[in-house]
Amino acid sequence: MSWKVSFEQGISHFKKNKHPEALVLFNEAISLGCDSFIVYDSRAAVHEKLGNNKAALLDAKKVVDTAPDRWQGYARSARLFHALNKDEAAIKMIDLALERIKPDDAQRRQELNALKSQATDALKATDERRRARIAKIAYHIGKLPVEIFAEIFGLTPSLWRTLVVSKNRPTKKVRLWMERAQTHILELSFHHNISEMDWSSTLRELSPLSWCGLRSLAASGSLFSQLYDLLHQLSKTECISRLKHLDVTTWCPGFERFLPDFEDSHLDTLKVGNFNPSMGGLWSRVHRLKSMTIEAGYIEILPALTANQSLENLVLSDLIPMQSGVLHLFNNGHSTDVLEFAHADSLRALRELRVGSCMTTASSLNAIVAGAPLLETLQISGIHGVVNDVLAFICSRHPNDQHQDMCTFLKHVDLSNCGDLLTRNAYSLVKTRLHTDQPITVDGGQPGCKSEIESLRLDGCPLMEAEMLPWFRGKKASKSVDELSSHQHLNFLS
Fold this sequence. Notes:
- This protein is an alpha/beta fold and 494 residues long.
- It is 40% helix and 11% strand.
- The strands form three sheets. Strands 1-2-3-4-5-6-8-10-11-12-13 form an eleven-stranded parallel beta sheet. Strands 7-9 form a two-stranded parallel ribbon. It has a two-stranded antiparallel ribbon with strand order 14-15.
- It has helices spanning 3-15, 19-31, 37-50, 53-66, 72-83, 87-100, 106-137, 146-153, 170-180, 199-206, 221-234, 239-242, 301-307, 362-370, 387-395, 423-431, 469-475, and strands at residues 162-165, 187-190, 216-219, 245-248, 269-272, 291-294, 297-298, 313-317, 319-320, 352-356, 377-381, 412-414, 455-457, 480-481, 492-493.
- The radius of gyration is 30 Å and the shape is elongated.
- The protein has 17 helices and 15 strands.
């Protein structure tokens, strides 16, 4: 068949507002060898009608590449850029289109100039919003001299209970805070930019602190080690067990020597920037965690989860497994069944799970999902070969032997940078949770109804089909949906 036949049929369907049929025929014309800018411009027009603005933009670019002296590709690109809120690019395209339109074509010139005015106004409005936002959040008070700052807040002692030490005159700031807080500081945080030359003098100023009242501490691994030496000299290491929040931002050498002081720890929030094997001894002492973030390093995760059964928030990223090249989150080496903990109580309080850029298996993640009935937020990012099986497990009907659906409270899902994510699995995740698609009893009720998905992130998922965006939008008519290309982002916003 000649491509011209498909092209002419496509034009006919387009004029009848049969846009999906026209799209099929224009695709067919291109597959039959047509490389004319007219076909690409026609297909771009169909994509634009269907709301696939980014797909339309790709075809408009092809028109510009194929016929750079024609105005059509530039004009359509301008409209699409404006629709995508990229108004600087829209204005550039308008200027290029105007250079190629004949001087006597007054109507098209008028239309493009009107579009240029809209884009210019939109740019001005965006800039005004940006300036207003900056003015609202600008940290003006941080620029004040310490002495003036002290006078302003001298009448409100509670504001001195939090001390953040940074590179700007750290010793002087600590001395002032200690005086104003009367040595009673609840939250102490050391910024990573403090010069090592200032560590000794800064810690010396902190010596009189009422250490047993400290409840939150954040420091780099090396600075934490020096701080511990100070506490040892002061015979105040017992304050470690009284901390409720601890953030060790970098590798901490010799951590095993601190372990005895974590006995009967009150920690409920732990964040470690680089976990090392010597930290594994924490799990025989730390049992009250509600939030744990491990951002890098070597870790056996099972002892941590088993020891902290009230865990509500778990974030894992850039981890290196300690055994076999695969991180089995529920395999302790004493059983070959990685799902043996799927029905255990160790994760029943978990509401948020984030796993990114680390090696794991679908079986391990399915075990976590099955053991976390209250899960509301799930993130699987930058992991290959896992996400499709996990979504299939979540969407399957009664996947466990207790005849319960998985994750009935799940609302927020982030699958960004999962290069093998298939459209059908994201589709099933949303569709199986639509209230309209869930069973209704004779009295009109929906017992056991699952929560609908409220947010879904798909950045960096090249196998997602842009043509499915209208379906997602239609199923969430009350919420806004960003435009989606084959490797861009989709987000439902309440």
